[in-house]
Design a protein that fits this description.
The protein is of the alpha/beta class. Helices cover about 30% and strands about 20% of the residues. It contains 29 helices and 34 strands. It has a 7-stranded mixed β-sheet with strand order 5-4-16-15-14-6-7, with helices on both faces. α3 runs parallel beside α20, α8 crosses α10 and α8 runs antiparallel to α11. The longest helix is centred in the first third of the chain and has 19 residues. The protein is globular and about 80 Å long.
Length: about 900
């Protein structure tokens, strides 16, 4: 019998509702939930492809010790024994948990309870430290609590939206589409994008400020000084509801010359931005990783909040600072104290009263009495031997942590490493002494919280495969084995959620922002039926406001917000040896370290290999041409990626995405380049301002392959692997030309002996092409050239699914181009509908002159809309070419 289950997307912090349908044959399809208030039925390309990522290929399905399958009891007994022995010999601070915004709130809650209340250490931190810690610090300094004041509705009510450090079109596409629709309905609405790159988000911008790296504090300090001299300054609000304005203003007083130098912006643009902010009452400032991932991230957050406090634009419809979380449950992790310097229910670890309250509620034998090690500190402590037992859950720090090679070495040397994950082979699981199989999306049951404080259910619609178990269950079982059976006697996630909710309301009475006490007595049936809701929802209270601080009451002891004086100085990181500024981030269709999106051929169609965006002028100076390979180096590592020349990237800078791992590329873990510079308040690493060098990587030959078989043992200086329809696509570079192309293929693609080869080589040009067939099936086609291979990738991939019964079609494969009358779709532009650039160009030439017309003809851009800017660029390019 087919079923439909309402659940929540496991990608970004938008928190979109998803309806998963399971057919009679077990097939799964997904669509947006039209009733969910985060997305009203919209899904981005990643969410739309969720059903393509839930297969069991590569899953770890049984516990393992030293790579050998064992039973759960044996594995958990070993974990508990080694942790207990380590604590007994070296103290509770010798062990640590490193967890993830991919965990559900219930998993997070049990992990924090076990570590902070029963082991007695605060050595639990999360990969949310890498994305949202500066927001937490900024909120707590300004508001006295980690509170996001507004909600998504404010994005549609605002008259000015400032997007700073946020490529919304690619990283939060559903919110981007909500804003785009609001702007289309109200053309007077203005949008300012502050970003060193001209990202696709700028497609809807009225003003793009290409700010220099870490110039944000100076820009918002300058704005504060401008507001202080303008009619927009709300002196009554400042006097009644805030403290510290004079000090913040004194720190913000910069001359225009100083502003220009710090921000890299022309005076006209600075004045235009200041004027817009001053004269528009309904302003929302959205910020994300471009603000947070900085050694001055906390100051950036407070510089933004200062401007909103100075104008009283906080907590009212259509106005306020708005932190957009990167992961699906970064907010839920913050609610349960997931960071090393926090306690559950937004209570403070450095507050004796809060520690006592949590300890009494948990009936815990101890409570952590000092902050634990933040992520960067944690892995340094693993490296120097202070941490002797490490449990990593649902994250891949060997790829995502700064100075990633040093982190890899630290984990490899740690005496005892436990990893809970869904994938058998990742850069991190390879280093585990004990590997525990966790449940994945579709199998998990619990809650997540999105960027607007909305708690939604993530419901299971698939059975747990093999012996996979939820993370909360694994933690509870270890808690029992450590002697705390009564405190960890959970049978279902509803019991954990009820305890979490009850703690939030315990001795609260409105003194703390996070309160969902109304759900403290929820049972399994109530939990199963729980619909999305925003907090606060205190016990016994009526309907609550969806925004905080409208009444001017904050959570500092005196009820007043704090202006924070921030330093506008911009760190100088570039040197003669490393003269370029590296910025890292996400791409449209991939997520984190590819363990999920890497399974989808459709999601790999848009950008299938690691790359570096380089301004054409910089590339010219470095003798780098488009599609060349580039070696990028820093004092901590080096990577090799493809050159993508584009004027969207500012001169003097590079952009490299953070997704590629040693599972998918030869040398592309970009965080090997990132040093361990951190914000002194939040401990968040600086991933957006890295000094690097770049040079053309001179390969002896280049290659591109499509194959039904996954290649093994590639040992070339550059390779990048991606899933494709019918098999795999591989980009290659060789140190020297291949002497025996057929032997190389048979070695690395495990071709059957009966595979027939067809090919040619040209020793003068260095070109060589070969294809292997069994019957009508193409198994492998490899194209080699002295320059980057000029073959239509999508056409070649399509040949894996085509019959090749005659010599004509086989020779077409070797030639690398379709025969007469065969269409080549070109590079993928719209991943949702697999529409290529050549198809769009043809439609434009046939009379489709708008994005809407392209959508009506090809469907491109009509689902998530994150490709609409790219489509508009193609249309503009065709029209310019036609005019010439």
């Amino acid at each position: 019998m087919s079923i439909e289950v309402k659940t929540t997307c496991p990608y970004c912090g938008v928190g979109c509702g998803v309806i998963a349908s399971v057919g009679n044959a077990g097939t799964v399809s997904v669509k947006g939930d039209p009733d969910h208030p985060a997305n009203f039925g919209r899904l981005c390309s990643k969410g739309s492809a969720l059903a393509e990522t839930i297969d069991l290929d590569g899953r770890v399905l049984t516990p393992e010790i030293a790579g050998q399958p064992v039973g759960w009891d044996e594995a958990l007994d070993l974990v508990a024994t080694r942790f207990a022995e380590t604590i007994a010999e070296h103290g509770p601070d010798s062990v640590t948990f490193y967890v993830s915004g991919q965990l559900l709130t219930e998993d997070y809650y049990v992990a924090n309870k076990l570590m902070k209340g029963f082991i007695g250490s605060a050595n639990i931190d999360t990969n949310s430290r890498l994305c949202m810690a500066s927001s937490v610090a900024g909120h707590r300094r300004a508001f006295g609590s980690d509170t996001v004041p507004g909600c998504y509705e404010d994005l549609e009510l605002a008259d000015l939206i400032v997007l700073t450090g946020s490529n919304l079109a690619w990283c939060h596409p559903v919110l981007y589409q909500r804003i785009a629709a609001a702007k289309a309905a109200r053309p007077a609405m203005k949008i300012v994008v502050i970003d060193p790159r001209r990202t696709m988000t700028c497609d809807i911008a009225d003003l793009h400020l290409a700010v220099a790296a870490d110039g944000d504090v100076a820009l918002f300090n300058g704005l504060l000084a401008h507001l202080a001299a303008s009619p927009a300054l709300d002196q009554s609000y400042i006097a009644t509801h805030t403290q510290g304005f004079a000090d913040a203003f004194a720190a913000a007083s910069l001359s225009m010359v100083e502003l220009i130098e710090a921000t890299g912006l022309p005076a006209m643009q600075i004045r235009q931005f200041f004027q817009l902010f001053e004269t528009t009452e309904k302003v929302v400032t959205c910020y994300s990783q471009g603000v947070n991932q900085s050694s001055s991230g906390s100051d950036k957050v407070n510089a933004i909040i200062n401007c909103h406090l100075a104008t009283g634009r906080v907590g009212r419809p259509g106005m306020g600072p708005f932190s957009l979380t990167g992961q699906p449950n970064a907010m839920g992790g913050r609610e349960v104290g997931g960071l090393a310097n926090m306690l559950a229910a937004h209570m403070a670890l450095d507050n004796p009263e809060h520690r006592d309250r949590v300890q009494r509620f948990w009936q815990a034998p101890v409570i952590a009495d000092k902050p634990g090690l933040k992520a960067v500190e944690m892995f340094k402590a693993v490296a120097d031997g202070r941490i002797k037992a490490l449990w990593i859950m649902s994250t891949n720090p060997v790829v995502s942590m700064p100075d990633a090679d040093a982190v890899k070495a630290a984990i490899a040397a740690c005496p005892f490493v436990v990893v809970s994950d869904i994938m058998r082979d990742t850069d991190t699981t390879r280093l585990a002494h004990v590997l525990l199989p966790a449940t994945g999306w579709g199998e998990k049951d619990g809650t997540v919280t999105n960027s607007e404080r909305r708690i939604s259910r993530q419901r299971a619609f698939l059975p747990a495969p093999g012996e996979a178990r939820p993370d909360w269950w694994q933690l509870a079982e270890v808690g029992r084995r450590l002697g705390f059976a009564e405190a960890f006697a959970y049978g279902v996630p509803a019991e954990i959620f009820a305890e979490h909710a009850a703690l939030s309301g315990f001795e609260n009475d409105g003194t703390r922002d996070f309160d969902i006490g109304a759900h403290g007595a929820i049972d399994a049936a109530g939990f199963a039926a729980l619909t999305p809701f925003q907090w606060p929802q205190p016990s016994g209270a009526g309907p609550q406001e969806t925004r905080f601080f409208a009444d001017g009451r904050f959570y500092h002891a005196d009820g007043k917000a704090r202006f924070v004086a921030v330093d506008a100085a911009v760190p100088v990181r570039v040197t003669e040896a490393h003269p370029l500024v590296l910025n890292t981030g996400r791409v449209r269709d991939h997520w984190h370290t590819l363990t999920r999106t890497g399974k989808s051929a459709r999601l790999s169609g848009h950008l299938a290999e690691p790359f570096a965006e380089i301004h054409p002028d910089d590339a010219r100076a470095l003798d780098i041409r488009d599609a060349d390979l580039v070696e990028i180096g820093s004092p901590t590592g080096r990577v090799i990626v493809r050159a993508l020349l584009t004027p969207r990237q500012a001169r003097g800078g590079l952009f490299v995405p953070m997704h590629w791992t040693d599972e998918f590329a030869a040398r592309a873990r970009v965080d090997t380049l990132v040093p361990s510079f951190t914000d002194p308040v939040s401990g968040q690493p600086a991933s957006k301002h890295v000094a690097v060098s770049a040079r053309r990587f001179a390969a002896g030959a280049y290659g591109f392959a499509v194959s039904t078989l996954k290649p093994q043992g590639l040992d070339t200086p550059y390779w990048a692997l991606a899933k494709a329809n019918g098999g795999w696509r591989v980009e290659l570079a060789f140190e020297t030309p291949l002497d025996d192309i057929e032997a190389w293929c048979r070695t690395h693609f495990a071709l059957p002996a009966e595979a027939e080869s067809l090919g040619y080589s040209d020793r003068m040009s260095g070109d060589a092409r070969i294809a292997f067939f069994v019957g009508e099936q193409l198994l492998l086609a490899l194209f080699v050239a002295s320059q980057p291979v000029a073959v239509s990738r999508n056409w070649a991939i399509g040949q894996l699914s085509e019959p090749h019964a005659d010599s004509r079609t086989r020779f077409a494969v070797v030639a690398g181009r379709p025969g007469a009358g065969r269409a080549d779709p070109g590079a993928t532009v719209c991943s949702c509908f697999s529409v290529g650039v050549n198809q769009i160009v043809s439609a434009v030439r046939a009379g489709c002159g708008t994005v809407e017309a392209i959508g009506a003809t090809l469907s491109a851009g009509t689902n998530c809309g994150s490709c609409r800017a790219e489509i508009r660029g193609i249309i503009d390019g065709c029209q310019v070419a036609a005019a010439e």
